[in-house]
Protein: MobA-like NTP transferase domain-containing protein
Organism: Streptomyces doebereineriae
Amino acid sequence: MGYGELRVPTAIAVTGADMALPAQDERTLPAVVLDGLGRQPLDHSLAALQTLIDQHGHVIVVYSRAVPPAVDQRLRTVRSLLESDRIALFQPDLPPLGIAVLARQLRQLASCDLSPGVLASAGRLLTHYLHAGALLGSVAKLDRVPVGLKSHAKSWVPGSQFAVLAHPQPQLVRIAPDATLAGPEFATSLLVARGQLQSDWVSGTLAKSWRIQGLRESPLPAESAEWWGTGKLIEFCSFLPDLSVLYQLVTSVRQNICHWCGIDVIGDRCVFCSATAPVTPVPQQQQLQQQRQHQLPAG
């Protein structure tokens, strides 16, 4: 396959034990669990992150936008106080189960010969291959996915259930015999986390329509009820499970060097220092040629 192994892999951290999914394969590295960030003294958090930097060189913290504000604030405070460009705070717009799946994919890739900047950038790339959603008993308090007024009204009807896709394209349908969600156009596995809702729709109807090749269940993340606006849900996320496929996706993208901190990245933004790639000036001759193309011929 051609991928090597780093001696000191980049640390992939999550903000709770429920976000550290079991290993997908024998190479998947364990997640670093930063538990209690919103409750512990600041010096404990500083010491924990400094130790990770000393041991691993770089740390990528993958966490949900549904974390308590105190957790997000603590992470940003620690990064600022340590004055470190070796801590990447990655908070993609995914539901909690999708965050846990993405963190595990990065843990898979952390065992390979990818530099910290490329590994951190890979998170953005891999989100495009995730389909994350939930089956909900109510959408009355759902504010992270666009919901029409009709759906809100129907959510008050006893027994109503809704299938919601939050990523990559928002979609909402009321469960009916012909209900379906747009799924991946490639072979994937499905992870399912059950809350306080009883239904076989996800593991049966959805998995069949998406041509799922492997299905596993996981405990529901603690942040899921807040993210979806209800505890009556079954959350799901489809993903690419094979490390060789993930590695090929990442290494097939052209790498750049961050003009600010100097590390290798893919894409136009460095996850560690947040610098964006400068706009490359168009050569003067090319500018003149473009101007001539837009000029109208003389009458």
Remarks:
- Confidence is low (pLDDT under 50) at residues 292-299.
